Amino acid sequence: MAPPIIIIGAGLAGWTTVRELRKLDQRTPVLLITADSGDFYAKPALSNALQQQRTPAQLVTTPAAKMAATHKVSLLAHTRVLAIDPLTRTLRSTRGEFSYRHLVLATGAQPIRLPLAGDAADQVQSINSLDDFSWFHQRLTGAAGCGDKVVGGGQPLNLQSASEHSRRHVLIMGAGLIGCEFANDLAAAGYRVTVVDPSTGPMTALLPTSASAQLQQALAGLGVRWHFGATVKSVNWVKTKVSMAVAGSARVHQVESILQVELSNGSLAPVDIALSAIGLRSDTTLAQAAGLVCERGIVVDATLQTSSPHIYALGDAAQYATGLWGVPADAAAASVAGARTMPYVMPIMSAARALAATLAGTPTAVAFALMPVAIKTPALPIVVAAPAPGTAGEWRSESSGQWQFMDGQHQVRGFALTGTQTAHRAAQAKLVLA
Amino acid sequence: MKTYLCIVCGFIYDEAAGRPEDGIAPGTRWADVPDTWACPDCGVAKADFEPVEI
Q1: In this complex, how many residue pairs, one in chain A and one in chain B, have their CB atoms less than 8 Å apart?
Q2: Phi then psi dihedrals of residue A386, to 5 deg
Q3: In this predicted model, what pLDDT tens digit does every residue of A49-96 receive, in sequence order?
Q4: What would the DSSP string read from start to end of B1-51?
């Protein structure tokens, strides 16, 4: 029997490729290998789960076993691929060796980690998976945080009087899209939030300056404390004495360990949880070791093929080039220059559809339509269609809450909408020159 | 009135609220939402929504 199509990664890119392939081809065997459980969940929902009062378990929309049965795939969960050999079309994993007819790399991206000083630097966490979120949710809502150590106080504590104490304080490094969404979700759910970013405002890479200022104000209105032009220098454990009332009028003191975050601007923030949301980097480890062309991501051509035949990539792992490898002979090198990563949901859906057609036997180039991104900050709803990287021009605002990115020829190349203006996203999208 | 979840991005369609900005009046049953309607957040089709209890 011919070897299967093997897909590495069970995130949105991996599972959507499976779903789309099965719409076209019910018979070709598919093996899905994933380092996690393979449960299907919507990753964008991690950053608004608190307001929707959804627990980590409730975020799983379809368990792995049901996904595998529905789509007729063999699933190897909790399995890591160790090496790929493009010449023999085989791969080696923690569960043995497998041959493939086509291989799909849907390995996603990993959080960028900054080296920080301090004895609690390892406590800084990123949330890039349901497992990460489960840890965070436990830490946030659990009766006691991991670092809490009660010393002294022999009587049962009256937790009612500790409401101020129990309003946990979360520090977020990074005021980009994910940092802002988490800040909004946490602040709206009643947690104390501090955000630190070296730039001058929230989401400055995506938004016009005045839209960024609106968002800054809206989140400040929820109680978010901003530290711009600053970075985190160190994170250390400190013991703090908390005075609490107990039954009757007596007070006890308990000592607990919390995180002391020191900023470059000299501020000290005592916090319960420190999150890093400074960005993601495509996971190219396997691809690079296999000799595939990688830059910021695994470089793929218009058919999602990597520099090696029979190996494809999509999603956060991929860097999308235009054109086809070797057509004309020097095209590959040239196309890499304009290649970009697109770490959003809509490009994954488009790429998975095209790749499924290719895998089913009809080589298909992906076409990315204009893809506005809805930012889940209910304090100030935002829809932004950023201009392609490197587009020369400037943001202009014709009316309140509405911006257009105009190039030198007065063509609209992107737009941003805030508040009630977000209702006009479809009309705005029509104005943008493809 | 029920709610429906975009399994891809987590967007929730609430029948009670409808989606007036897309011309879908409050109280519109899921069955009556046009098949051409797509998730406003991520663009996937109506078929990629599932009923959800919140």
Answers
A1: 46
A2: -75, 145
A3: 998 888 999 999 889 999 999 999 999 999 999 999 999 999 999 999
A4: --EEEETTT--EEETTT-BGGGTB-TT--GGGS-TT-B-TTT--BGGGEEE
Cβ of A52 within 8 Å of Cβ of B43? The answer is no
Select from A12, A40, A346 the Cβ nearest to the Cβ of B43: A346
Of B26, B25, B20, B54, the C-alpha closest to B40 is B20
CB contact under 8 A, B42 and A346: yes
Question: Chain A residue closest to B4 (CA)?
Answer: A61
Is residue A395 classed as helix, strand or coil in its secondary structure? strand
For helices A177-188 and A209-221, what crossing angle results, to 10°?
20
At which residue do the structure tokens 């966490």 appear?
A: A125
Q: Measured between alpha carbons, how far is A50 from A248 in angstroms, rounded to an integer?
A: 34
Query: Rounded to the nearest 5°, which phi and psi values hold at A162?
Result: -100, 20
Q: What percent of chain A has pLDDT over 70?
A: 90
Question: Cα(A49)–Cα(A62) distance, rounded to whole angstroms?
Answer: 17
Could you report the predicted ipTM of this complex, rounded to two decimals?
0.70
Q: Set out the domains of chain B in order of their start, with CATH numbers.
A: 3-52 (2.20.28.10)
Of the candidates B36, B38, B13, B35, which has an alpha carbon nearest to the alpha carbon of residue B26?
A: B13
